[in-house]
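SAMPLE LOG
Freezer: B-3
Tube label: C17
Construct: single chain, 209 aa
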Amino acid sequence: MNSDRDDLKRLIQHVTSLLHSQHIRERFDDPVDRAASEFGASALLSQPRRSREFLQVLGEFVMHLYRQVPVLAQELSPSQAQQEVVGLLEDAYSGCNGNGYEDAFRHALDYGYAAACSVITEAMKARYRREYIHWVLLTHIEYLDSQTKIDLISCLLENWNGTPPESLGHCSIREMAPKCATLVLLQAQCLEDLDRMLGVTPHSAAYHG
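STRUCTURE (predicted):
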């Protein structure tokens, strides 16, 4: 195996490690959960009296997350935080009735701010995962030239861990090149499934980025 092939194997291993859910959880999910748990518990148990107060408290919650989570580490203005609240609640209720903010307010009237903060926390983590995966693939795979993508797919299929999808057998490597990033992501997911079946817990020290 030549050095170029070794480089491609190392690239695949590096990208799949960056995409592993444990790496993402340690990098973002766990810090977000910790920050959310440190926000004033007494305030979360109370019910809002009006929509304006609801938005203000949730804005303070989002500002707190942005200050405390290392990968965010920025100071939002109250208006920026409140815009973020509305966006996250609408994302979280997407596919329901399109009134995420109003639905969250109604739930808070019954269950307090904690319910809305929980929804915001999960929506923020889900959005970060999407953005992070897109960033990893864009910066490590998508920018490669066509020939390198072809070589990478060839290397990927030769060293595939697990059983490659049957549909791949109907395409030439050249035809797969535009979907190179998708194939790398698929292999990362297959590796996670294999880890779970074998009871393997990857050590966090193996991950970088």
